[in-house]
Amino acid sequence: MATIIDGRALAKKINAQTHKRVAKLNQQGIHPGIAVVIAGDDSASLIYTRNKHKKAMKLGINSILRKFPRDISQNELLAEIDNLNKDDSIDAILVQQPLPPQIDQKTITNAILPEKDVDGLNPLNLGKLFANQNTNHPIACTPRGIMRMLKEYEVQLKGQNAVIVGRSILVGKPLLALLNNADATVTMAGRNTRDLTKLTQTADILIVAAGVPHLIGAADVKAGATVIDVGINRLSTGKLTGDVDFDSVKEKAGLITPVPGGVGPMTIATLMEQTVDLAQWRHHG
Ligand SMILES: NC(=O)C1=CN([C@@H]2O[C@H](COP(=O)(O)OP(=O)(O)OC[C@H]3O[C@@H](n4cnc5c(N)ncnc54)[C@H](OP(=O)(O)O)[C@@H]3O)[C@@H](O)[C@H]2O)C=CC1
Ligand SMILES: Nc1nc(=O)c2c([nH]1)NC[C@@H]1CN(c3ccc(C(=O)N[C@@H](CCC(=O)O)C(=O)O)cc3)C=[N+]21
């Protein structure tokens, strides 16, 4: 029976630190602010948007939401990003993914000022991550949160086999860089991977971010492995579930994250932490 990684408890600890940092900055006349831009109504995005707004309010971070219909044009969206880039009260800009099909994701991420890019998706920030530069730069919140969890639970990375299922710019790719920078041996899988089961069975650390409910079952997992479930899927019953069949995999894994209560709360806590980082870097360098 695996140890269940408590994302909520660790998130709480990080949020308490962030709260204190906000109070300190407030005394210096600095009020961290985040702007979230959403176009359309993807269900995972709506969960994320609601939760982070609540958390920001609680921690004293100003949070504004710009919600647009799914038929918004690319130029309208770019104009909004330009306004937020120029708005001195905004330290962090997050554009929810996925965007509707008429909008080019890369054009949007390139438009966000690197120093306000709280998702770490701008090529400059991604480049610094891949170059393993230890300068102040934002890193995608979910991958950064996962690394924090692995550290908290003292999971060894050096020399270990890490397999990432999912290749998104938001999760898979930044994780590839972070785990590689930590001297793990990293393999990344996608839809075209031949014999996924054979590959995932080699993983000492298995991270799943595919958006496919129960993609990974007990037969796909090595005994004693650390299993991190990033998936957020809303079932027709209304229940939230990950990409891992938690009930069977928890019997075989060494460590496992639940959904809800695993990666999700850590993403939010890291987003809040990184918003404060950006405010601090922008005002103090
Ligand atoms: N908990 C949290 O904090 C967060 C949760 N999420 C959730 O994580 C999931 C993934 O999101 P995101 O990272 O944006 O990825 P995307 O939804 O953009 O892409 C999915 C990735 O999974 C791969 N994939 C899909 N099906 C399979 C399959 N059957 N076998 C192997 N690989 C497959 C795809 O491969 P290919 O590239 O070959 O098409 C692709 O790389 C979603 O459920 C999302 O809601 C996302 C961000 C944060
Ligand atoms: N630009 C961008 N950056 C993202 O990081 C991003 C995104 N777009 N689009 C959508 C996905 C999804 N995502 C979630 C984060 C937290 C929870 C979360 O709080 N989950 C709780 C849910 C609790 C509940 O409400 O039931 C949990 O897992 O415990 C969910 C989903 C971030 N994403």
From TrEMBL:
Where in the numbering of this chain does the Tetrahydrofolate dehydrogenase/cyclohydrolase NAD(P)-binding domain appear?
140-280
What is the recorded function of this protein according to its Swiss-Prot or TrEMBL entry?
Catalyzes the oxidation of 5,10-methylenetetrahydrofolate to 5,10-methenyltetrahydrofolate and then the hydrolysis of 5,10-methenyltetrahydrofolate to 10-formyltetrahydrofolate.
Question: Self-association or partners: how does it assemble?
Answer: Homodimer.
Query: Which family is it part of?
Result: Belongs to the tetrahydrofolate dehydrogenase/cyclohydrolase family.
Pathway as given in its UniProt record: One-carbon metabolism; tetrahydrofolate interconversion
Instruction: Return the EC number.
Output: 1.5.1.5, 3.5.4.9
PROSITE patterns registered for this protein in UniProt: THF_DHG_CYH_2
> What keywords does the record list, in alphabetical order?
Amino-acid biosynthesis, Histidine biosynthesis, Hydrolase, Methionine biosynthesis, Multifunctional enzyme, NADP, One-carbon metabolism, Oxidoreductase, Purine biosynthesis
Q: Where on the tree of life does the source sit, at the highest rank? A: Bacteria
Identify this protein by name.
Bifunctional protein FolD
Chain sites annotated for binding NADP(+): G166, R167, S168, I232
Reaction(s) this enzyme catalyzes, per UniProt: (6R)-5,10-methenyltetrahydrofolate + H2O = (6R)-10-formyltetrahydrofolate + H(+); (6R)-5,10-methylene-5,6,7,8-tetrahydrofolate + NADP(+) = (6R)-5,10-methenyltetrahydrofolate + NADPH
Q: Please tell me the species this chain comes from.
A: Limosilactobacillus walteri
Q: Give TM regions.
A: none
Query: InterPro entries attached here?
Result: Aminoacid_DH-like_N_sf, NAD(P)-bd_dom_sf, THF_DH/CycHdrlase, THF_DH/CycHdrlase_cat_dom, THF_DH/CycHdrlase_CS, THF_DH/CycHdrlase_NAD-bd_dom
Q: Does the keyword Transmembrane apply?
A: no
- Tetrahydrofolate dehydrogenase/cyclohydrolase catalytic domain location is 5-119
